[in-house]
Amino acid sequence: MSESPDAHSLLSASSQLNLMEVDTIDDKEFDIPQVDTPPTLESILNELEDEEEPFLLEDTSVLNTDNIDAYSCDTSSLASSDSGDPAHLKRKRRTQDFNAPVHGSVVRQSLLKGISAQIVSAATVSGVIAVGTSHGLALVFDNNQALRLCLGTKSTGAEFGAVSALSINHDCSRLLCGFAKGQIMMWDLANGKLLRTINDAHPPGTAILHVKFTDDPTLAVCNDSGGSVFELVFRRVMGIRSCDSRCLFSGSKGEVCCIEPLRAPPDLRDHPITHYSLLAMASLTKILVIGLKPSLKVWMTFPYSKSDPSSVPQLAWQFVPTQKTVNPVLAFCKGDTVHFLLVKKEDTGTIHVIKQRQLNLVCDIISLSWINNRTLVLVDSHEKLQVVDRPSQEVLETLDLEQVQLVYNSRHFKSLATGGNVSQALALVGEKACYQSVSSYAGQIVYLGTKSAHIMALRNWRERIDCLLKQEHFVEALSLAWSFHEGTAKAVVGLYGDPVKKKGVVADKMVEIFFQFSEYSLKKCPDQGKIQVMEQHFQDVVPVLVDYCLLLKRADLLFNQLYSQLAENMVAKGVFLESLESYIVADRLGHLTTPIMRDLLAHYHSTGKMESLERCIVHLDVTNLDIQQVVQVCWENHLHDAMIYVFNRGMNDYITPMEANEEVVMGNKLLVYISCCLAGRAYPLGDIPEDLVVQVKNQVFEFLIRLHSADSSEEEEVFPFIRSLIHFDTREFFNVLAMTFEDFKNDKQALEYQQRIVDILLQVMVDNSDFTPSQVGGLFTFLARQLAKPDNTLFVNRKLFDQVLDFLCCPDDDSRHSERQQVLLELLQVGGVIQYNEERLLALAEKAKFYQVCEFLYEKNSLYDRIFDCYLRDPLRKEEIFSYIHNLLSMPGYSLKEKQTVMEKVLQHIQVSHHSGTILPVEHELHELLLDLFCRLSPQQILKFLQTSQHYRLEEALQYHHKEVSAYLLEKKGDFQGAFSVLLGVTKYPKNLKIDQGLQGSKTEKEDSKSTLTIVKDSLDNIIDLCHHSSENLYQQQREVLELTMKVLNCMSSFISLPAIIQRILQDPVYGTGKLAEIQGLILSMLDTFNYEQTLLETTTSLLNQDLHWSLAHLHAAVTKGLHPRQDYCYICFQQYKRRQDSVEEIIVFSCGHLYHFQCLQQKDCEGAICASELQQSWSCYKCSSSQGGRGGPFAEPKRLPSTSLAQVSGFVFVEATLSLQQEQSWDQLSSLYRGPSRLSILSELSYYHSNEKTGLIIPGQPGAENFQLKLSPPPLLEE
C-alpha cells in the first residue's frame, strides 16, 4: 500500500470522506464509472472468490515457475500478498488480553464496508483509495468508497502479472503501479489514461517490491526483488513522455528490501530539508540515508544490532517538533528494537543525523507506522497491534488483528512470477513482509486483509472517555479524564485552546461522570444481603468521587448535590462520612459544612470510632465547628487532644486543659503539651500564633509555680502541679525544662521564671523523703548541667550541694549503693565537680566505697597507679584490671613516666601475690591469657613456657597454631602420630613456616638469618627425637612396621633422589655396625653401578638423536642440490640443447652431469630406458649405463632421482619418483662421502669391551686405558 499526502485526509473534519460512519454506508448505492474495459461488480467478486481456494492449498515449494502467470499466482493483497502462503497458514496466533485502565481505548478500528464488499485487498489511502489486484487491475475509489476508475485489463495482468506496489503523488493526479514481472505503469487519475509503461527501469526477471513518489512529481524510486534501488526521472519533451533510470544501490552489495522517501506534509513543503530529497533504504544488514538532490550523496549508514535473520526491516518518516523547530525523525527497526534518528540541516548546508533514545520491545515487529508526531503503531509477528507513546515508551493499547487476516508479500519477495531467482536471505525476510498491506496518512492507518480493509485512527478525548463509560468503567473513565485535565494523557486528540479552557471543558465532563457514577452505584447496590457486601460496594465508589471532587476543588458539589444523592442510602452515607477522614488528616479537606460536621459527630459517636473522630477534629478549622457540641463530645469521651485543640484554637485558652482534668495531668500528654507551649508550638500540631507566643509562655509558667490549685483542700501540699509532674516522670520533666531554658537567653521575664522554678524544685525535693535518691540526683544533675554553661544566670546555694553530697555518700546507708554512686558520677561528669572540695569529695567516696567516683577523680589528677587499687578493691570490676592495664600501656596519650609508674605498681602486686597467693590466684584463664600474649609477642618462648608450666588446658592451648608447640602438646596428650604429622609438615613447606613465624611475632637476628635448609634440618632432628621418645610407647608390631620411618622416607623422596637418601643413611656412623655393616659395601657398589648406567643411558640417547638429525640434514642437502651439466649438447645427437631459437624443447639432466633431449632419449632403443606415459616416466643415464656394461644392470652407477633431474626449457615438469637403480646408486655414493666409524659404532664397541671388565672403560691399543674417561661432545655444526 502507498499513500498520497493530500491535505484532504480520510479523517479530515472538512472533507467529505466518511469512512468511519460505517452505519450509513450502503453497498448498493455505489456506481461504477465508465473506464476503458470496465469490469462488472459481479465479475470482480466472483473472480476473487473463485481464486481463494487454489492458492490456499498450493505448496510454494513445488510450484512450477515456468507456468506461473497472473491467474496461477493468485493473491489477495494489493501487492499480490501471500495471505494464503502455507507458512502463514500454519502460524500459531496467540490471543492476549491487554487492559489499559489509564489510557482507555486509544485507537478506533472501523471496517471499510464499501470497499471490502468489492475487493479482496486494498492498496493506498489519500483523497482517493487505490486498490491492486492479482489480475493486474488497479481500482480507484473516491471518498465515499465508490469505485471511480478501473485501470488496466485482464490482458495486462496476463502479461505483467499481479500488482505488487502502488504509489500516489501528493496532488492525487498520478498513480504508479509496479507489477510482479517487473513492469511499471503510470496512470492519470483524472481521466484513467495510461501515461507510461516502463519496461527497462531495472534488470529484467525481478519483481517490483516498492515504487514510491517523492515530493518532486517528476521523481520516483523503486526497489526490485534483486535488492537494487533505482531512481526514476519522468520527462516530457515535445509531447513525448520518457523515463530515465539510474541505479542508486546495487543488490550485489547487500539486498535492500525496504525504501522510504521523505515526504513533507502540505504545511511543511517549504522546509529546507526537502531540497535534498532524502531517501531511507533498509538492507538486510544496515540502514542508509541518501540525498538525491542536488547530487547523489550518502549522509548516513547505521548497521543493525544482532537480530533474527527472518526479521523484517521497517522504515517510517515523521516530522516532529523539537526545541522550537520541526525536523524529520526516521524510525527504523529490525526485530524488537526501534531506533530513532533526528535529521537536521546545519547552517553550513550539511545534514546532521542525531541518534535518539531507542525503544525496546519484546516482540518481532513486522509493521511500523507513525500515527502522529508522538505516537507509533506497531504490528508484531503474532498480528498484535500496539500503540506506543514515543516520549514515554509506554504501550498505550494492544489490539488483536487476527480477524483482519493481514496479507503478506511473500510471493513477490520470492519473485515466483519471474522464476524465483532471489537469494535465500531475501526470501526468508519475505515470509513476514506486509509492506503493501499497511498504509498511513494524516493520523489514519489502513490495514489490508484477505477479504476486507480496516482503517485505524486515534479517538478524540471525549470518545475515549465515552468508550469506558459504555463499558461501565467509571473509575478508569475518571482517571483518564483527570489525565486530560492535567495534561499527562498520551495520544490526545480534540483538545485545543489555552490550558485554562481545556481544563474547564474536561472538568465539566468529569462532573457529568460524577453524577452518572453516583446514580449507577445506587442503582447497582444489592438490596438484600450482608451489610459488609453493601459497604464494599460503596467503598469502590464513594472514595473515588470524594477524591476527584477535591482534586477539582469542587467541595461544594461534593457536600451538596453528591452528598444529598448518596445520603438516601444509609450505608452509602456512612461510607461517605468515613471516607472524609483520610483527606482531613492529610489536610486536603479543612472545612466541613455544619450539616456534614453534625452527621460526622453523630456517625462516629454511634459507631464508637472516637479515635478517628479525634484525629479529624484536630485537623479541621475550629471556626466552622459547633464548639459547644464538640467540647461536650470530647469531655464525655476523654478526647484530650481534641479538647486541647478546641480550647487553644477556638478560645485561645491554654491553661484550662491542664487544670480541668487530673487524668491529663498524670499523663504524658501534659509534658508534651507544656514542652510545645514553652517552645512556641501548638499541640498536637502546628504553631502558636506569633502574637500569642510570649503570652502563652507566661501563662504556662504561672500555672507551674502556683502555690495551690483552684479547688484545693487543706491537705494539699504546696506547688501541686510541679510535684505531680516530678512524680510522673522526673527525667522527662527535667528534659522539658532543659529544652525550655535553651530559649530563655534574651528573655528577662523568662529568666526570672527560670530562677523561680529552680528555687521551687530545691525547696520541694531536697530533704524530702518522698523522692528517691535517683530523683534527687536527677535534679542536681540537671542543675549541674545548667550551672556548667558559659552563659549561666542561675544561682544555687552551695550548701545544698554539700547536703546532697552528704546524702549520697552516707556510709551507714547500704541501700541503693550502685544507684547513689551512679547519680554522683553523672553529677560530676556534667560539671558538678566545681561545686565541691575535691579532697573532701574523695574522702567521702572512699569511705562510701564509691570506687568509680574515686577513679574519676584520680584520672582527673593523672594518678593512674591509684586507679589500679580501685579495680582491685572493687569486687564488681576486679576482673577488668587486666583490660585496664592493657589499654593504658598500649593506647597513646599517656606519658612514659605514667606507664612506668603503673608497671611498677603491677610488678609490686605480682610479687606480693607470689608470697601471699591471695591477690593474683593461679587460674587456667590467666595462664592461657599469658600463652596468648606469648604467641603474639614472643613466639620463640612458647615452648619453654609450656615445658615449665602445668596450669593450662591442653585443648585450649592446641588452638594456637604453632607447629612445634602443637607437636609438643600432641606428644604430651599421647597422640604421637599427630605430633609426627605436624613436624612432617614443617619439612614439606619450610618457606611457609618462615612466613608464618614472621607474621606471628618478632624474631631475633639469629632466627631471621636461618635458611630454609637449617629449618628443615632442625625439623628432622625434632622428628628423630620424637621417634626416640615415642619408641618406648610403641607396640612390638608397630616397631617392626616402622610406619614413622617410612613416612619420613616417602616425604624425603619428593625432594631428594632415592640414591642420595640411601647413601646418606649408609654413611651415617650409626649404621656402621651390626648386620647392616655386612652389606654396606654391596649396596654402595650397586649405587655406583646405577649412577654409571644412568649416565651411559642418557649419553647414548643424546648421541642417537644428534646422529640421526645430522645424517638426515646431509641427505636432504645432497638430494635438493641443483644439477650442473658438463656440456651444453645432447650426448645422443651431439647437438646444442636448444637447436632452434623459436622452438621449445624438453631436456633431461642427470646427477652425473650428462644432458639429453627428451625426444632423443625417448626414441633411443635401449634396454636401460623405461618408457612410460607423459604423465609418469622413469629414466636412467644412457652414457653411464652403457659404460657399466648395460642399462639397468645391477652394477650401473646410480644417478639423481628422476623427479629432480627432469627439466623443460619453458618450465619444469615434475614426475613422481620411484625407487630405481639410480636411487640406490645415489645412496651408496652419498654414504661413501662420509666414510669412517660413526659414534654409534664407537659406543657399541665400548659397551662390548665394558662387558668383559668389572670397572672402568677399556679400549684396546690405547695407552693409559685404565684411566680412560669418556669424553662426550656435541656433533660438529653443518652449514647447509
TrEMBL record:
Low complexity: bias regions: 75-86
Disordered: annotated segments: 75-95
GO cellular component, one term: early endosome
Protein name: VPS8 subunit of CORVET complex
PANTHER family, per database record: VACUOLAR PROTEIN SORTING VPS41, VACUOLAR PROTEIN SORTING-ASSOCIATED PROTEIN 8 HOMOLOG
Sequence ranges of the WD repeats: 156-197
Transmembrane domains' residue ranges: none
Residues in RING-type domain copies: 1130-1185
Keyword Zinc included in the entry's annotation: yes
UniProt keyword Zinc-finger present: yes
Record-linked SUPFAM superfamilies: WD40 repeat-like (SSF50978)
Family per similarity comment: Belongs to the VPS8 family.
Biological processes, Gene Ontology terms: endosomal vesicle fusion; protein targeting to vacuole
Record-linked Pfam families: Beta-prop_VPS8, TPR_Vps8, TPR_VPS8_2, zf_RING_Vps8
UniProt-listed CDD domains: RING-H2_Vps8
Molecular function per GO: zinc ion binding
Keywords, comma-separated and alphabetical: Metal-binding, WD repeat, Zinc, Zinc-finger
